[in-house]
Amino acid sequence: MPNKGIHTTLVNSGSHTLDQNGVTVKTINPPVHHASTVLFESYTDLQAAARGEYRGVSYGTAGLPVQRAFEGAMTALEGGAYTKAFQSGINAITTALMAFTRSGDHILVVDNVYGPTRRFCDQTLAKFGVRTEYLPSAVSADVQDYIKPETRLIFLESPGSNTFEIQDIPAITALARENDIITIMDNTWATPLYLKPFDLGVDVIIQSVTKYISGHSDVLLGTVTVQADRVDTFKRFCWTMELYASPDDCYLALRGLKTLALRLRHHEAAAREVAAWLAGLDIVEAVLHPALPGHPQHQLWKRDFTGSTGLFGFVFKQEYPDQAVAAFIDALELFGLGFSWGGYKSLMTVGQYRRTAASKYKARTVFRVNIGMEDARDLIADLKNGLKHLNGHRETADA
Ligand SMILES: Cc1ncc(COP(=O)(O)O)c(C=O)c1O
Question: Of 64, 78, 92, 199, which sits most exposed with the smallest number of CB within 10 A?
Fold first, then answer.
């Protein structure tokens, strides 16, 4: 049978059966068990569980059918060997970072990494003797200049948070392998549909399932997927942490997977339309969207990715006073103001982002847009109206 298309694969992901009193119950969607305790059939099974030799699930934290169905679906989609779901994306990130480091290690993290990932490295990993150094956001083979004998791990996020630079992933992973360094990639922006990090040499993939995979802004969930040679280390660490993900959230994430490909198509098309419109405005200096030909790493995006999603940024040519920005933002009717992204509603955030390495956007105000499932022309009309409220720029907003 030829390889199945992505829509077929998603619809058939996470299938299961349930045995009840010898009768096999088969539904399209998995059952959701709310359970801490799992009952054993016999004393022999109870003793086997105590020895860690029981073949079934022995406790809620080990993952019940719905968690396992979702994890299995993610393993297949990422093309890895094992996935574990966690209560949030950041929880997946911090667990992976702890699982693969130890005191005395040096790690390299891209400068455009998600803010709370940076905070965890600087404050918590540092407390346990792991030292973090930041790589330029668009790092490539120059990663070589940063590798030290004690470098154990490289953490990538491409495009990275808020400024959307792309890294040369195969160039970095090739050097990492030569130097026996593990690479972890936060692949939330592209999802498993638009980037295959394992094919580019990455060892561990993170998803904030909170974003596109669940897709409706009503779930917090994350996954870590590892290649075969990392399964033992990761499983052993997870076993000591006893972290788990809620069955209801895994159920919703699995349901989200079924429509992921369709939703992404809309996010991609609408975001490209809005981004192209913004790029044509006189008052806009740059639209930070890797699928636009003017993006500095557009060629790398074209080489490695098979699509783009709905999150991008833009900067104005001038820095506006707070009052003007407030007038623009508060005039928007279709864009909610709030963190996170990947859901059906369009959102806007505004900020200046911390950078260690040299960056064009170090002291600049970046507007971040999450394009949801609305019609692009309505979003453009809303932005156009909002921009009329930027002080003294009534005329250019009509460009
Ligand atoms: C790139 C990226 N990774 C990870 C996360 C963390 O996800 P969660 O909100 O599920 O903890 C976020 C959240 O905004 C993010 O933007």
Answer: 199
Cβ distance 373 to 266 under 8 Å? yes
Rounded Cα distance between 186 and 280, Å, is 31
Whether residue 258 is predicted with pLDDT greater than 70 in this model: the reply is yes
Q: How far is the CA of 190 from the centre of ligand 1 (A)?
A: 13
In the chain the domains, ranked by start, together with CATH numbers, are 61-256 (3.40.640.10), 261-398 (3.90.1150.10)
340 lines ligand 1 (CB under 6 A): yes
93 has a pLDDT exceeding 80:
yes
Name which residue sits closest to atom 14 of ligand 1, judged by CA: 340
* % of the chain surpassing 70 pLDDT: 97
Q: Over the stretch 148-158, which tens digit does the pLDDT of each residue have? A: 999 999 999 99
Integer Cα distance of 313 and 295 in angstroms: 11
Nearest CA to ligand 1 atom 15: 114
| Cβ neighbour number for residue 17 with a 10 Å cutoff | 10
195, exposed or middle or buried, with CB in 10 Å at 0-12, 13-18, 19+? buried
Q: Which residue among 114, 205, 207, 218 has the greatest number of ligand 1 atoms within 8 angstroms of its CB, and so is best to mutate?
A: 114
Predicted model pTM: 0.95
Please name the residue whose Cα sits nearest to atom 10 of ligand 1.
89
Sign of the torsion angle spanned by Cα atoms 302, 305, 310, 312? negative
Q: How far is CA 249 from CA 95, 294, 383, in A?
A: 19, 39, 33
Q: Which residues contact 248 (CB under 8 A, 6 or more apart)?
A: 32
Residue 186 Cα to ligand 1 middle (Å): 9
Per-residue pLDDT, 392: 59
Q: Is 210 in the pocket of ligand 1 (CB under 6 A)?
A: yes
| Tens of pLDDT, residues 184-229 | 999 999 999 999 999 999 999 999 999 999 999 999 999 999 999 9
pLDDT higher at 21 or 296: 296
Query: What is d(CA 203, CA 144) in angstroms, rounded to the nearest whole number?
Result: 18
Q: What is the 3 state secondary structure string of 207-240?
A: EECCCCCCCCCCCCCEEEEECHHHHHHHHHHHHH
Give, to the nearest 10 degrees, the angle between helix 322-331 and helix 376-387: 140
Whether 220 lines ligand 1, by a CB cut-off of 6 Å, is: yes
Mutate to test the pocket of ligand 1, among 209, 212, 340 (most ligand atoms within 8 A of CB): 340
